[in-house]
Design brief:
The chain is α+β, with helices and mostly antiparallel strands. Helices cover about 45% and strands about 20% of the residues. It folds into three domains: about 60 residues, Arc Repressor Mutant, subunit A (Orthogonal Bundle), CATH 1.10.10; about 150 residues, 2-Layer Sandwich (Beta-Lactamase); about 90 residues, Enolase-like, domain 1 (2-Layer Sandwich), CATH 3.30.390. α8 crosses α9.
């Protein structure tokens, strides 16, 4: 167990190291000590913290730096605190930027990864919802100009998928509404790949069995479903890899190469971040806690996002273990909430 003084000095070392990126000496801490502790007293406490595995000394004459274990204690204290919010102007900026995408899934995911990178100064990663798992509950058609139509597919959890299509001829809105009802009757409860397979089967049957409206509805339904993936992994949206180049924590060419290899292996990133889908809140893996050895010098923070009753994907930040966790954690929580809201909006436009 850490004493109160030990905890305060450890927090002071962490804060100094986060700000400057250099080993922290006792003289530096003595100048900012609220208790006006002497350098000798601080050195004694730091030696105890080193014995506990919370501080390390890169060189004999250097100060100390926090270990992965020290950052773990720091992060656990942040996660246990109920007071985790971004400044109101930051939250407003994030919501405004996401709203500017008009709810189109690829644009939302791309903007979310950019925001994570921009606000954290690290790498922002977003796993998009796997569209192959969306369940067909209802579909709405909105007549646009000429023959252009907007198809809005909604699943039972409120996940919205948009498709912009062009019909063979102009169709009145009243007929579009009737077609939507017919398609909902045919495909409700099926996943999108299952709905597409059923539609292909129906289209192959004798079309004289169907009245003109249903035949037309099936034709439009084919256009809606033909471009959707059957069973591919979630899309990975990554932004800010260049931020790593300016980090002194990755001065080693080998470390840099290993990290960029990890970024390039999208399937491996999906595997790592998908584990976050099984838990609530922010997951934090610090340095040696990461199973992938290429991430042993990194901190990986991830949080699930979704709609009520269903988790859809993950937002994540990847950077050095010397990360501003107090800012990164509420940033992930804010993006997670914002993505869940914007994806669940049934009245979004493309």
């Amino acid at each position: 167990m850490l004493s109160r003084r030990g905890w305060e000095i450890l927090q002071a070392v962490i804060q100094c190291h986060l700000e400057e990126g250099l080993p922290v000496g006792s003289h530096s801490l003595a100048r900012v000590s609220s208790e006006h502790l002497s350098s000798a007293t601080i050195r004694s406490v730091m030696a105890e913290l080193e014995e506990m595995g919370l501080l390390s000394q890169p060189h004999a004459s250097a100060g100390r730096v926090p270990t992965d274990g020290a950052y773990r204690l720091h992060v656990d204290s942040l996660l246990s605190s109920p007071k985790r919010r971004l400044p109101p102007n930051a939250e407003e900026g994030i919501n405004r930027a996401l709203a500017g995408t008009h709810g189109a899934i690829p644009s939302v995911m791309e903007e979310a990864s950019r925001l994570l990178s921009a606000f954290s100064g690290n790498v922002g990663v977003v796993l998009a919802p796997d569209i192959s798992r969306v369940v067909f509950e209802k579909i709405d058609f909105v007549r646009l100009e000429g023959r252009r139509l907007l198809a809005v597919i909604v699943d039972p959890a409120g996940v919205v998928t948009h498709r912009l299509i062009e019909a063979r001829e102009e169709i009145a809105q009243a007929e579009l509404d009737r077609m939507a009802g017919l398609l909902a009757d045919e495909f409700s409860g099926l996943t999108l790949p299952e709905a597409r397979a059923r539609l292909i089967g129906l289209m192959a049957e004798d079309k004289t069995r169907y009245d003109q409206l249903l035949a037309q509805a099936l034709s439009i339904g084919e256009k809606v479903l033909e471009g959707l993936p059957v069973a591919e992994p979630s899309g990975v949206f990554l932004d800010g890899a260049s931020n790593i180049l300016g980090q002194p924590d990755f001065a080693s060419t080998l470390q840099m190469r290993e990290l960029f290899q990890a970024f390039e292996e999208k399937g491996r990133l999906v595997e790592i971040l998908s584990r976050c889908l099984e838990q609530e809140g922010v997951m934090v893996r610090i340095g040696s806690e990461n199973e992938d050895p290429r991430l042993r010098h990194c901190a990986v923070l991830a949080a699930p996002y979704g709609v009520p009753g269903r988790v859809l994907g993950t937002v994540a930040i990847i950077g050095p273990t010397r990360m501003q966790y107090a800012k990164a954690i509420p940033l992930l929580e804010t993006l997670s909430r914002a993505l869940g809201l914007i994806i669940g909006q049934q009245d979004s436009a493309p």
